[in-house]
User: What shape does this take?
Amino acid sequence: MDLTDEQRRLQESAIAFARQALNYDVVAADAAEEFNRDAWRQCAEFGVLGMPIPQEFGGLGLGLSSLLAVMEGLGYGTRDQGLLFSLNAHLWTNSIPILMYGSEAQRRTYLPGLCNGSLIGANAASEPDAGSDIFSLRTRAVRDGDAYVLNGTKMFVTNAPVADLIVAYATIDPALGPTGITAFIIERATAGVIVGRKLHKMGLRTSPMAEVIFENCRVPAGQRLGREGRGVEVFECSMEWERGCILASCLGVMRRQLEECIRHARERKQFGRPIGKNQSVANRIVDMKVRIETCRSLVYRIGTLKERNQEAMLDAAMAKLHVSQCFVQSGLDAIQIYGGYGYMTEQQVERDLRDAVGSSLYSGTSEIQRNIIARALGL
Amino acid sequence: MTDVKATIRQFILATYLPGESPANLRDDMPLRTSGVLDSLATLGLVSFVEREFGIELDAYETGVESFDRIDDIVALVERKRAAQ
Assistant: This one.
């Protein structure tokens, strides 16, 4: 898939920005599980947070293919994948649902801040007993006059420790099943919102994550996002965008890994010759290259479909499944090519693999993506 | 006048039961509780019914009591249209 001249220019600009502004001591930040607020602010100034949002709400109004090109560039240019993961969560599970399902008042109230970096968004859907089976969630929203009172616990909430705004999902009646699930926009400062213990992860450690507890949390009815009982539609919309787009930055990481592995294979000598002359090493690098090209087609196809206002659920699931598998394999290959150095944190090769493993889990596990694809095939 | 039942049956067969014999889709079959329609399919059917028949269903009208069997869904649609 070839980028247009404009998309190439945007991508190169993103790479230059990421190299200049987003390459602090990520080894230390990863070890400390430290979210970089200054980097977030700089991303906002660069325009990342407003890319898919129309200009009337403070965004840049970029087409999705251009946005994917920028995200690929950021993935290529920065080593802080945790930061990019937080950006993605903010964009696809908070800004986009508000844009697509919010009232005019909600869009005007929140989208400018979400675009300019003054508001950090989070998404509270998963629960301790509702992960892949997300629609069995139990957080309850009881209507009380002009408000809803929420009670329940959410798990794995990316950005929760730093979020200002949470899109949360609750059921108005468990007996209704999926047609009772309703979405809400909840400001962090709302009484009854408790951000619980920070969760420590294998990878993406610079992206903060925590539990969120709603305890008699009174949410004005005007904060409901979309219609009562139509939260599944809101959730699926955000997942379609997230599944298709979150892996664009992974394309950039895989490209960087490939280039670094080629360089290493040419420079590192063992037994008197570059290790790249060994077929076992060269073949791994060949496979990395082939994987990247197959992934690129799948990811950019999402952009094409969404720009044509076409259904992309199946393609997003296929992209998520395949790209995440390739991302993990590329991480494994890179470590093997670097040998012992690949295992050391200082080289930053091992962190790419730790970050990549999460891609087979977030936005729906690989197993769930297979279920989606199977259903679309009529199985 | 649109045949509500035929329209709903055709949508379900084409969208969720491709290749299935229409005779196997009984009007009194519990579509959701039997597993024919999962969560997303249920929401899809709700959206289709609203769009196709120009009605708006609130959350409590889409519970299994009134939105599980074709006969019940048809009755709901006709009730809503009559009230408009």
